[in-house]
């Protein structure tokens, strides 16, 4: 019996490795599409593979994104932390993990999160970019709008990219 057939019988499905690029692992499944939108992967020309509700010994279920031939900028990695703080970033070179990057929460963010206050100037004037301070409240990340001071909880973050 072929190895592929054995794996199929066992229920093992494999996603092919990428030669060079970035793997974002341990994403909470509910945050997968926020990360995709945040990184603009819905508009990219790079090969992107993603899976969700995969088994994880560490967090139960997870999502994963593989982006061929793209390195995430430090700023992008910081932004990932807002919607997927448990994520792990691996840089791949020649099919091997060459670097593991830490997801660090930024102290402020601009221009890609919508303010939840409909009366905020950022929702009234299209030329005004959103600006938020990032902080922890009750053990969860939260954002405070620099203009109206509305606090947005982590699960309510809406990406506007």
Short description:
The protein is of the alpha+beta class and 161 residues long.
Structure report:
This protein is α+β, with helices and mostly antiparallel strands and 161 residues long. Helix content is 18%, strand content 35%. It has 4 helices and 9 strands. The protein has helices at 3-10, 32-38, 74-83, 121-124; strands spanning 21-27, 48-56, 60-68, 88-93, 96-101, 108-110, 131-137, 140-145, 151-153. The strands form 2 sheets. Strands 2-3-1-4-5 form a 5-stranded antiparallel beta sheet, with no helix packed on it. The protein starts with a helix and ends in an 8-residue tail after the last strand. Residues 1-8 have low confidence and may be disordered.
Furnish the topology, listing elements before pairings.
Layout: H1 3-10, E1 21-27, H2 32-38, E2 48-56, E3 60-68, H3 74-83, E4 88-93, E5 96-101, E6 108-110, H4 121-124, E7 131-137, E8 140-145, E9 151-153
- The share of residues in helices is 10-25%
Strand order of the biggest β-sheet? 2-3-1-4-5
Main beta sheet: strand number and arrangement?
A: 5 strands, antiparallel
Q: Report Rg.
A: 18 Å
Q: Mean pLDDT across all residues, rounded? A: 88
N-to-C CA distance: 48 Å
Q: Percent of residues in beta strands?
A: 25-35%
Uncertain runs with pLDDT below 50, 5 residues or more? 1-8
Structural class: alpha+beta
SSE topology string = HEHEEHEEEHEEE
- DSSP summary: helix tally: 4
What is the approximate shape? globular
Instruction: Give a count of the beta strands, DSSP E runs of length 2 or more.
Output: 9
